[in-house]
């Protein structure tokens, strides 16, 4: 099953983490890759080392990124040095490389067949900002073992991904 948690409201990561807890309780192994996040988010403090059946990894820079012209002056001032603004269609190369390194790790985890649940947190955002190519994600989704449930979270899920999903919320 492919689930996509998207939209502008809160709760996408929270819902995915709840599903992870539930899967662990059902005896499944869980793999979580958080894109564009560093260690320091509240869920990581609890889940890191929680149980050996849970693998939690991060990939990418933890900064807020935005395309030119999408942030008001007030938001730019608010974010200050923590926002990286780039021209539309030209995301920073170092971000792309970090996301792809993490995605290679995801491919190995999925192809191992040992996980009942794989959560790709904020992957939708990486897709939205073109930090990862659609074809790479489609190839991953084609290789997911039948017994593995996939959850992709983040704002801006592309239409093609929503169409593929079994559940969208």
TrEMBL record:
Alphabetized InterPro entries for the sequence: CblAdoTrfase_CobA, P-loop_NTPase
Which keywords does UniProt give here? Transferase
Q: State one molecular function term (GO).
A: corrinoid adenosyltransferase activity
Q: Which residues form the signal peptide?
A: none
Domain of life of the organism encoding this protein: Bacteria
Give one GO biological process term.
Answer: cobalamin biosynthetic process
UniProt-recorded name of the protein: Cob(I)alamin adenosyltransferase
């Amino acid at each position: 099953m492919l689930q996509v948690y998207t939209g502008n409201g809160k709760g996408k990561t929270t819902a995915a983490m709840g599903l992870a807890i539930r899967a662990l309780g059902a005896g499944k192994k869980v793999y979580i890759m958080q894109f564009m996040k560093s260690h320091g988010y509240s869920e990581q403090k609890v889940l890191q080392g929680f149980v050996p059946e849970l693998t939690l990894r991060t990939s990418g820079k933890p900064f807020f990124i935005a395309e030119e012209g999408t942030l008001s002056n007030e938001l730019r001032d608010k974010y200050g040095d923590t926002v990286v603004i780039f021209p539309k269609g030209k995301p920073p190369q170092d971000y792309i490389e970090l996301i792809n390194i993490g995605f290679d790790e995801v491919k190995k985890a999925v192809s191992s067949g040992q996980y009942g649940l794989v959560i790709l947190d904020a992957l939708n955002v990486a897709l939205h900002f073109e930090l990862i190519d659609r074809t790479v994600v489609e190839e991953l989704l084609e290789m997911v073992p039948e017994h593995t449930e996939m959850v992709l979270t983040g704002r801006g899920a592309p239409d093609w991904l929503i169409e593929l999903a079994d559940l969208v919320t």
